[in-house]
Amino acid sequence: MPHSRLLLIITFLLLALVGCTGGGILSPHVDYDSPNARSAGYRTVIRGDTLFSIAWDVGIDFRTLAEWNDIGSPYVIRPGQRLRITAPTQTGSRSTQSGRSAKAKGSTQYYRVKKGDTVYSIARETGTSTRNIIALNALKKPYSIYPGQKLRVSGSAENGGRSGARTSQASNNRAPPANKGRPQRVGRWIWPTSGKVVRRYSPHGTSKGIDIGGRAGQDVVAAASGTVVYQGSGLRGYGQLIIVKHNSDYLSAYAHCSRILVKEGERVKRGQRIATMGNTGTDRVKLHFEIRLRGNPVNPIKYLPKQT
């Protein structure tokens, strides 16, 4: 067989092999449900994320997420920011142990900031409070710190009156702790769209809400009054999604929408048209509707009026 013909056949086979493997370049994908991602305990903010959408995705109360990361109202986060998504380990004061970063000098102790530290994480690590660290170091909003910075973590603050006033203001801007008493009332809930429930809530299964069947373009309305805290398609499995905050305890979500008619930060009234039904991120036209109480999914049927 001529050498040129053999070379042609080999080239053809190589091209065919490349075609079978997909040909294109796969875009990188971060699997936040993988064991490695969970064990890391952190998540990097990407464009389109909000504190509420991340809290929703992780399954915790937004105030808890804000507290873990020392983020105050209005809970602004930035692409590239690294957020803690698991509870910090309470180890007490680490400054008394050998080899730790906090060093004692008389009655005053210091801490050398490491990469990834926040004022909140340092307070937990050294057994003090965020307001104490802010006052001792005269930190100003947004209380930024940097690796290598030396912070006082104990002792008396100079200009105590001014530091106390500044600390009080900082405390007021931080996220309030998650409520443990009776939830705030939302008022009257209504159905977010008309149609038959084709999938019910499963407390121990994969359905964290209900699926309502319908036709493409059908109106989707706010089930109760509130503020839009997320709209987009960044949460896997939800397609085009809207999250509405009704009060400090209740959130609701409207997934697989075709068109989104509201913007983040917009105040919506109960019954207001916020989207149209679609099949984004799923295999049929439907609305997936969820209600969460302090970050935990609850059965929407228990809140909605009986269908007639």
Give your account of this protein's structure:
With 308 residues, this protein is of the alpha+beta class. It folds into three domains: 35-84, LysM domain (Membrane-bound Lytic Murein Transglycosylase D, Chain A), CATH 3.10.350.10; 102-173, Roll (Membrane-bound Lytic Murein Transglycosylase D, Chain A); 197-302, Glucose Permease (Domain IIA) (Distorted Sandwich). Helices cover 22% and strands 23% of the residues. The strands form three sheets. Strands 6, 7, 8, 9, 10, 11, 12, 13, 14 and 15 form a ten-stranded antiparallel beta sheet that branches. It has a three-stranded antiparallel beta sheet with strand order 3-4-5, with no helix packed on it. The chain is globular and about 70 Å long. Mean pLDDT is 78; it is low at 17-39, 91-106 and 158-173.
CATH topology of the largest domain: Glucose Permease (Domain IIA)
| Number of helices, where a helix is a run of at least 4 consecutive DSSP H or I residues | 7
CATH superfamily heading of the largest domain: Glucose Permease (Domain IIA)
As for the number of domains, it is 3
User: Biggest sheet, open or closed, and with what strands and sense?
Assistant: 10 strands, antiparallel
Distance between the termini: 80 Å
SS-derived structural category: alpha+beta
